[in-house]
Design a protein that fits this description.
Structural class: alpha/beta
Radius of gyration: 24 Å
Oligomer: single chain
Number of domains: 3
Bound molecules: 1-deoxynojirimycin
Mean pLDDT: 96
Distance between the termini: 57 Å
CATH architecture of the largest domain: Alpha-Beta Barrel
CATH superfamily of the largest domain: Glycosidases
Number of strands: 17
């Protein structure tokens, strides 16, 4: 738990704090019985320093597992082999006095990097995938996928010309020689083959890559090969809604670019939040978070939302003496710590918000007695009600769940697009401004009807001109669901 689960000492076990293999099997069984899938986090880049592989690897230079990790001699004048930095502070190298070499770690020193150039490592890690696939898991979210291979010559990374001193010192260097190397791609294709072997006509297994990369490089992870087949991960996580400035024009631009960059038959995807970034309700504010929900669930592609965002949970300030995250401990006060977005899920007004009968390791948000699943389930105007409605609409409307994306030209702070499927057409209008926004009649279908609005008071047939409220979003269909004439 040096990095809360991202330091794994046994890839084929369940930490007793969380259960047993039996309880895991029961979870998969019961989830499947309810039509839910289970996707595990697969952490290929590193293990815990307590993993038996690493314990053996560090035991002696001659150990057969020595080459399973990244060991290098000190630089000629002494010190780390090169200038690479660890994500959570300090160099990416730790000296092992007993054997006189440094080992590499992209994150904490407790998280030594595996050597994916070694075929034995690859084979062992693919066995890990098979172990869980045999237990019935539906796929994997693959941690820091782009970083698993390092430069064969271990060259120094160049300075980042855009770095400013107020930033995380890690950003001082460009990760030219330890991320997104060409050697990663064939490994991704190997992983895909391992996973595909467990897919059948009834159910396919999925790989989702955690990839913070520029657009052109991100879409490369779909793995379009010379035959036009996609042999990479099915879903390279698209984090643009986390990264892009929250303005209609920026999002419009990115969606268009993303749609244009996708290889044929690639499934798009959109991520609104995760356990490493500030929560959406804190990033954009509570009102705009409702608009974000509508955006996420109406864009073309697989949506990913982070637990608690569906009830509008916000980041929780964590006092210094309660900090858990090593990111915060190692670089205090820079706002890098991830504890604020990792507080317990707020289920109900029961003790500890119904999350645990034990003592949670992070405090609850102050609003938990009222902002919880139980209370919001009974409130038709709640964030949860909005999410449930949008999810149901997505299921019911083929245009939303598999229709094409058509960018529309809107004015000012409004983002407008249509989703089309076999003559069915829905129009989505999202006002990113905090003032009312009249919608041009040219954007409206004939006989428009509101299928969803972030404003619980708006519903039904639209008579006359439509004016969106501040931060309001609407999904518009036509009366009787008829296909409107295309403009
Ligand atoms: C990315 C994960 O999302 C993050 O939580 C973790 O700390 C690092 N990878 C290291 O595994």
């Amino acid at each position: 738990m040096a990095d809360f689960g991202y330091d794994i000492s046994d890839f084929c076990g369940i930490d007793p704090r969380f259960g047993t293999l039996d309880s895991f099997d029961a979870l998969v069984r019961e989830a499947h019985a309810r039509g839910l899938r289970i996707i595990l986090d697969f952490v290929p880049n590193h293990t815990s320093d307590r993993h038996p592989w690493f314990v053996q690897s560090r035991a002696a230079r001659s150990d057969p597992r020595r080459d399973w990790y990244i060991w290098r001699d000190p630089a000629p004048g002494g010190g780390p082999p090169n200038n690479w930095l660890g994500n959570f502070g300090g160099p990416a190298w730790t000296f092992d006095a007993a054997t006189g070499q440094y080992y590499g770690h992209s994150f904490l020193k407790e998280q030594p990097d595996l050597n994916w150039r070694n075929p034995e490592v690859r084979a062992a890690m693919y066995e890990v995938l098979r172990f869980w696939l045999r237990r019935g898991v539906d796929g994997f979210r693959v941690d820091v996928l782009s970083q698993i291979v390092k430069d064969a010559q271990f060259r120094d990374n160049p300075p980042n010309p855009d770095f400013t001193p107020d930033q995380d010192p890690f950003l001082r260097l460009l990760m030219l020689y330890n991320t997104d190397l060409p050697e990663v791609q064939p490994i991704v294709a190997e992983m895909r083959r391992v996973v595909d072997a467990f897919s059948d006509a009834r159910s396919s297994r999925v790989l989702i890559g955690e990839l913070y990369l520029p657009l052109a490089r991100l879409v490369a992870y779909y793995g379009l090969n010379a035959e036009g087949v996609l042999e990479g991960v099915q879903l390279p996580f698209n984090f643009q809604l986390i990264a892009t400035e929250w303005k209609a024009a920026h999002i419009d631009r990115f969606v268009r670019d993303y749609e244009a960059a996708l290889p044929a038959n690639a499934q798009p995807n959109w991520v609104l939040g995760n356990h490493d970034r500030a929560r959406i309700a804190s990033r954009v504010g509570p009102r705009m978070a409702r608009l974000a929900a509508m955006l996420l669930l109406t864009l073309r592609g697989t949506p990913t939302l982070y637990y608690g965002d569906e009830i509008g949970m916000t980041d929780v300030p964590i006092p210094a003496d309660e900090v858990q995250d090593p990111f915060e401990k190692n670089k205090p006060g820079m706002g890098l710590g991830r504890d604020p977005e990792r507080t317990p899920m707020q289920w109900s007004a029961a003790a500890h918000a119904g999350f645990t009968t034990g003592t949670p390791w992070l405090r609850l948000a102050a609003d938990w007695p009222t902002r919880n699943v139980d209370a919001q389930s009974r409130d038709a105007g709640s964030m949860l009600a909005l999410y449930r409605h949008l999810i149901a609409l997505r299921r019911a409307q083929p245009a939303l769940n598999r229709g094409s994306y058509e960018a529309l030209e809107a004015e000012g702070d409004v983002l407008a697009f249509a989703r089309n499927h076999e003559g069915l057409r829905l129009v989505v209008l999202l006002n990113f401004g905090d003032t009312p926004a009249p919608v041009s009649p040219a954007l409206m279908p004939r006989q428009p009807v509101v299928l969803a609005s972030t404003d619980p008071a708006r519903a039904g047939v639209i008579e006359g001109p439509l004016v969106l409220g501040p931060c309001e979003g609407v999904v518009i269909g036509t009366v009787n669901g008829e296909a409107p004439a295309t403009r």
